[in-house]
TrEMBL record:
Lineage summary: Bacteria, Pseudomonadati, Bacteroidota, Flavobacteriia, Flavobacteriales
Signal sequence bounds: 1-20
Domain of life, per lineage: Bacteria
Name by which UniProt lists this protein: Outer membrane protein beta-barrel domain-containing protein
Entry keyword set: Signal
Length: 212
């Protein structure tokens, strides 16, 4: 993890310990795919998205009045893709699971009675905890593989709406979409493989007030 990320995370942690207002619990479904180019720069045209899942637990607090909020938490996300190569008649499938540290900012853009509308951006630093690749009838373990067993940086943007169901709890529904930073390849020449993870997350959760 880069020093700037560590410093920022420590700063947010100190702020949350002093001013934390809400516990955040979220679960949802993801539509994920791999953005892959081979060493010649050619894409796999027939890669197909797969349905995956994610979970998030963290803290959220207002940093400017009641319409700008910061968050810090941990996310568990799964990514996958399937495809085939009609030229060589190959079938391939990926299934991966990542654990990450997530920081974010959200802005309330307008409010209608008890319903609030927000825009949101997040940055996460994730590492693989489980993963497999299937090539035809052979399955490979991706933990330790150069292209996957490395820190994965993910930037997402999206929107959510929340509705206050009591003084202690607020229900929200959220969409976040994004693409990871290019994963490093073990190939050292100029023309090398390129791989990014793509996800569209649809979820719901609760804000639980920790301070009245």
């Amino acid at each position: 993890m880069k020093p700037k990320i560590i410093i920022f995370s420590i700063f947010l942690t100190v702020c949350f310990q002093a001013f934390s207002q809400q516990l955040v619990i979220e679960i949802g479904k993801s539509i994920t795919n791999f953005d892959y180019k081979n060493s010649q720069g050619n894409e796999l045209d027939n890669l197909q998205s797969t349905n995956q899942s994610y979970m998030y637990v963290g803290y959220r607090t207002n940093i400017f009045k009641d319409f700008i909020f910061a968050s810090l938490g941990t996310n568990y996300s799964t990514y996958g893709s399937i495809g085939s190569d009609n030229v060589l008649n190959n079938y391939f499938e990926w299934e991966t699971s990542y654990l990450g540290l997530n920081v974010g900012l959200d802005f309330r853009v307008f409010k209608i009675k008890k319903v609030n509308f927000y825009v949101k951006s997040t940055f996460s630093s994730e590492f693989i905890i489980q993963g497999t690749q299937q090539l035809n009838n052979t399955v490979y373990d991706l933990v330790g593989a150069d292209d996957f067993d490395q820190t994965n940086y993910f930037f997402r943007v999206g929107t959510f709406v929340d509705y206050s169901i009591s003084k202690q709890m607020t229900l929200f529904f959220q969409y976040m979409g994004g693409k990871s930073k290019q994963l490093r390849s073990s190939v050292s020449n100029i023309d090398q493989e390129k791989l990014r993870l793509v996800s569209h997350n649809f979820g719901f959760g609760l804000f639980i007030n920790l301070k009245s």
